[in-house]
Amino acid sequence: MVFSYSAGDDAGDGPTKRHAKHNNDDVVTVSVTGGYTNEAFKGDGDALADPKKPPPTLSSTEEEAIPSPDGKCRLKRNEKWRILKNIAAVSFAFMVQFTAFQGTANLQSSINAKDGLGTVSLSAIYAALVLSCIFVPTLLIKRLTVKWTLCVSMLCYVPYLAAQFYPRFYTLVPAGVLLGLGAAPMWAAKATYLTQVGAVYAKLTDQAVDAIIVRFFGFFFLAWQTAELWGNLISSL
């Protein structure tokens, strides 16, 4: 690309009025070998313009994640029922687990009264729970995600319940520490999960998010509190 510059353009006649004659010394020629792309320039369809690229295709999952103009998410119709099913499953699992644990914990000072074994095991549980609340939930949920944290943490209750068949200090106390370490991430993962699915369900049903989350927590604690009832009934047999 070549640009020509004339000294006559700087005269008082203005840049549009050129002199008829110029000396060779009055002309400066600038050669530009490179170039740049003007991103704001819209081509006029000539051969040098870049062909217009088609818009990228989206998968069905990506299309569902795009909100509609009214701000609602376009999710599958059965998503609402899947959320309710998962809430019921989590609530039932906690009810069954704490039916066993609460019933056993209420009897520790009686069935394992020798040398205060039952009381020591319960103390180990809640001492480990205090430490676990500070450090474990964030790290475990970040590594395993909410779902797998919930599953792994609930399994931490099994050794303590199994140790009741052979109650010794070297079985109950370590099992109680493991239970306490798993209890904090379990409750944190449960609360996180209910909050997340509550927000999604509120979008699906076009309801207030706070009302849905409170409703889900209410249903969960309804099922969880009945564990004390079933546990004591079974213990009384």
Automatic annotation (TrEMBL):
GO molecular-function terms, A-Z: potassium channel regulator activity
Record keywords: Membrane, Transmembrane, Transmembrane helix
GO aspect biological process, one term: regulation of potassium ion transport
A family per Pfam: UNC-93
Basic and acidic residues composition-biased segments: 41-53
Organism: Frankliniella occidentalis (Western flower thrips)
Chief subcellular location: membrane
Family: Belongs to the unc-93 family.
Subcellular compartments: Membrane
Superkingdom: Eukaryota
GO cellular component term, pick one: plasma membrane
Transmembrane portions of the chain: 83-100, 120-141, 148-166, 172-189, 209-227
Protein name, UniProt field: UNC93-like protein
Membrane topology listed for this record: Multi-pass membrane protein
UniProt-annotated stretches for the region Disordered: 1-26, 38-71
Cross-referenced SUPFAM superfamilies: MFS general substrate transporter (SSF103473)
